[in-house]
Design goal:
This protein is an alpha/beta fold. The protein has helices at about 30-40, 60-75, 85-95, 105-115, and strands at about 10-15, 15-25, 45-60, 80-85, 105. Strand 3, helix 2 and strand 4 form a beta-alpha-beta unit.
């Protein structure tokens, strides 16, 4: 397997908001399982933003993990938002009708929604 294409992710937390920047292939396999476990280890979150802009491939395993992370988020009262899916990923989400399940926007929109005029994050409307 080409390690360059493997799923990579970086988590940035500020207060109770985590932004997870993903790149590579979100396909069935060990990296995808590690991604899910990494997300589930996050604590004291109110908002989870998953940036999909650099995802080059997404399969049924990747969609399944996104649904498992969504379930974890709901069970832990964490609002989850998918941001910046590239056209290929967005078409796949639309074809599987998961655009009705996930809140999807640009990263800029997500961050603006989460900010009040005073600069403190607040709940976004799901």
């Amino acid at each position: 397997m080409n390690n360059i294409m493997e799923l990579r992710y970086q988590v940035e937390c500020q207060h109770d908001v985590a932004v997870v920047r993903c790149s590579g292939r979100m396909v069935r396999g060990t990296p995808l399982d590690e991604f899910r476990r990494g997300i589930e280890r996050l604590e004291h979150l109110r908002v989870l933003i998953v940036d999909l802009s650099d995802i080059e491939q997404l399969d049924a395993g990747g969609l399944g993990i996104l649904l498992l992370v969504r379930r974890w988020a709901r069970m832990n009262c964490v609002q989850m938002k998918l941001v910046n899916p590239n056209p290929l990923v967005l078409r796949l989400l639309q074809a599987t009708r998961l655009t009705t399940v996930f809140e999807i926007s640009s990263l800029e929109e997500a961050l603006c929604i989460l900010q009040t005029p005073g600069g403190r994050p607040h709940y976004a409307v799901a």
